[in-house]
Design goal:
One of its GO terms (molecular function) is protein-disulfide reductase activity. With 118 residues, the chain is an alpha+beta fold. Helix content is 50%, strand content 14%. The chain is built from 6 helices and 4 strands. Helix 1 links the parallel strand 1 and strand 2 (29-33).
């Protein structure tokens, strides 16, 4: 039985690489792109569990907490601590906003979303 479903932006290179990492390291989770999940657009990662839905940095923390590896579990618990959660959320938002450029810089498939016009 699955502990939940991680839903990620299927157009994002960073998201695709993260999804593959989750599949390798946390097999108790199902991993689906937003296309597979039936969502037209996705602004942040989701963790959909039987009891609650998480998104963004909180979803990342919860995913890590589901790991059987102690160090990942500890990292997730630290990320979920009240003060750290605020910092993690801010960092997550910056990365999410710039995921296209970051993906390209890392040599991953860049997001198919258009760049914001200033």
């Amino acid at each position: 039985m699955s502990a939940g479903v991680v839903v990620y932006d299927g157009d994002c290179g960073i998201c695709q690489a993260s999804a593959r990492w989750i599949e390798r390291h946390i097999p108790s989770l199902d991993v689906q792109s937003h296309y597979e999940y039936g969502v037209e657009e996705l602004g942040s990662v989701w963790l959909v569990t039987p009891t609650y839905n998480y998104e963004g940095a909180e979803a990342v923390a919860r995913v890590l907490m589901l790991s059987s590896k102690r160090w990942m579990h500890v990292c997730g618990r630290i990320m979920n601590a009240p003060v750290v959660r605020l910092v993690a959320s801010g960092i997550y938002r910056v990365i999410a906003r710039n995921r296209r450029h970051i993906s390209r810089a890392l040599g991953l498939n860049a997001c198919a979303i258009p760049s914001p016009k200033n």
